[in-house]
Amino acid sequence: EEKEQVEIKPPKEKRKVGITETALRDAHQSIMATRLRTKDMLPVAELMDEVGYHSLEVWGGATFDACMRFLDEDPWQRLRELRKRFKKTKLQMLLRGQNLVGYRHYADDVVREFVKRAVSNGLDIIRVFDALNDLRNMEVAADQIKKEGCHLQMCISYTISPVHSLESFAKLSLEMKGMGADSICIKDMAGLLSPVDAFNLVKAIKERTSLPVQVHCHYTSGMASMAYFAALEAGADVVDCAISPLAMGTSQPATEAIVAALKGGDLDTGIDLKKLVPVAEHFKKVKEENRNLVMGIEGVDVNVLIYQIPGGMYSNLVSQLKEQNALDKLQDVLEEVPKVRKEMGYPPLVTPTSQIVGTQATLNVLTGKRWKIVPKEVKNYFLGFYGRPPGEMDEDIKKIVIGDDKPIESRPGEILEPELEKAREVIKPWMVEPEDVLSYVLFPAVAKDFLIRKYARATKRDVGFEEALEGVAYPV
Amino acid sequence: EEKEQVEIKPPKEKRKVGITETALRDAHQSIMATRLRTKDMLPVAELMDEVGYHSLEVWGGATFDACMRFLDEDPWQRLRELRKRFKKTKLQMLLRGQNLVGYRHYADDVVREFVKRAVSNGLDIIRVFDALNDLRNMEVAADQIKKEGCHLQMCISYTISPVHSLESFAKLSLEMKGMGADSICIKDMAGLLSPVDAFNLVKAIKERTSLPVQVHCHYTSGMASMAYFAALEAGADVVDCAISPLAMGTSQPATEAIVAALKGGDLDTGIDLKKLVPVAEHFKKVKEENRNLVMGIEGVDVNVLIYQIPGGMYSNLVSQLKEQNALDKLQDVLEEVPKVRKEMGYPPLVTPTSQIVGTQATLNVLTGKRWKIVPKEVKNYFLGFYGRPPGEMDEDIKKIVIGDDKPIESRPGEILEPELEKAREVIKPWMVEPEDVLSYVLFPAVAKDFLIRKYARATKRDVGFEEALEGVAYPV
Ligand SMILES: [Co+2]
Ligand SMILES: [Co+2]
Predict the structure, then answer these.
(1) Closest residue of A to B223, CA-based?
(2) ipTM for the predicted complex
């Protein structure tokens, strides 16, 4: 009798995949020198809130510094303004582990206070990475993010080397799960991730951790959209995209292209292309208004594919050599980079390791003798102040570089004295709100100038931050 | 006993896939207004011949016209110069069916003579398409290509409409096989092909015909590299790419990105990335030298995705409306296009149908009354002079447009009188070689000026074509 029932086929279940829009952080950092102002963002915020993104990346990376340094803007205030307008959409930031949003390791008290304030000012998701994939550099931040009840996304900084493998990355992701990670992000800052590797890596991480996996690629080598497509086929949950005027080149794949590409298949972004049109139009206008800031990097950078050197690092090498009138040595330097990287234990090439490796390789070639001149940063690297490299450092080179100095074995953040109290004393006279002390610790020189102006605006004019934002305080 | 043998796993067999490089034809047509000169190509020819491409697209499309019109170059001579240098690599061209490399239908005697000369001057593969996918417009060319012993590749002009489906395209490909096609090309001139559709379409054509399938996409919508990846997964044999400086935007995906993307997977292009570096460097230099010719279309064109209107057609509509001071009517026109296209039987939007549909849609909006003004081309379309549309034309509209005139039922090429003899008479005084008569028939006004100069150079200076090419005759 049961068999006589008509079999009704259920409609094919589509798997839901998410899009994180990076227009307000990584995209403009990558192609407009991090110069988008809050007033370039707010007019389109309500429209973006209706799109149905998984989340928006809006804070962290270089934006904190750039706000104060170039735009006379308070990064905290930007976050609050955005939070106010994004009522439905999750907001996320990029945190450089113990480096937070700066360029050195900060003491643990700073890390904990920063995370606390970041969450209380409106973030839903914090993505944490470390240039060396040294989990100890993410430990304190991760612990505090969990304490604040925020979504902890931990990053694998993707790279290619003899000591990095599917297995090593999968193992790393499992350790991240052990640290409380709510999701894993594959961070391909250089555009090295091929679709073949993306498929295998996502599969391995999924099998090992069962956690949601998000993929973050830059288009530099031209493979990013293919990597996304393969990653999603392998089970990835979310991919990072940028609205078309701020996409491609050194930025992310275009949101519209990824949404359209998945239409009619087994995956559903839940996004209506038509809702992206006014968003694209807005940023097209903003881009036109700021033509002079748009960097000329379009298309595909072959160097990424041949030398596995990120686009930014390559152009740095070129300009360093030009300054020395030694551009004819470029090929030698390009061939020296992998040697130095090997001797340093195969660090992924991302800020700050890309600068460290690149500078040493250039010096090795220009001085005519390898490791003859060694900058302080390179010495600190060999001393363990940046953390533990993925592979073994060359012992002979290490001896040449550090001499009789003793490398640290501990977590780099552990040896730093607390910094907050002292900083509070310094800025007491012109402190407006508790976040100011963090701005100061992170970028003392820049913040001092900025905070004095902020104090003057807040007191003399007796206006709230909100009005200040839209008034004279933020001249165009 | 057999079971006791040690099982030796054979190394995993990789499937060989080919790359057709379009730098010398479609890529520069798409992003440099077809302005590459033969002397921009020759210095890198020997290096390109070593890469291991499946083939190079070097001729046809708009290049024939552009050679004579803008570059004072003989297209036939270009082909011979390239052939001389490409000793290992197959050369191919794009032929617009009965339109050859021009913009109207030519008589059958012209079609046959053109194909004959194209093959005898050095082509290995001829790709034929028709804007309406009307096989009758490819019939004579296909027949002659087979007679010449040349590889016949027949194109499906890809589009999206209620009368186009996986099934209809697969059926078309089978009919092409019946006409002798050696391979099938999916020609996605507008960048509409999503990876999901690419996968299904390739699979359907492969199953139906067992012929090699080549995919040709433009990057306009940002989906092309994903479409290639999915098409190759489905069994496609060759994809069209452009070396990075001439890639992306309205051109093809970058060769380097596709080669790198497939590395380590089941597909093997057999191409060493390092061999592409000097090719990329050469065209980067050429592009820099011709900055003024590079069209500013980068990134992703959302209109392709929303309105399914090719990038070039969209910008044409905008400039037409600007001329009329009616840019505020753009939205109305964009919404009128699909209506007109429906009434015309859903032609794919490619030269010349994109211009025909776009102009009529604009007129319908600007005059305030639909089909009030009808240009000659639109009338000819309804009369059947362009061929048979994929769907049914609207009978009421047809009546309005053609009145009492009688549409033709036959193959459009059939009603044209032979053209060669008359043309030979005209150019007799300054004919240098038999190919000249074809240049004249195709573009009488342009060719007349050009051929007179060619005759003068060939006789007065008494130099062979080869020397002329590198000497005074082709001033920089
Ligand atoms: Co990034
Ligand atoms: Co094309």
Answers:
(1) A257
(2) 0.89
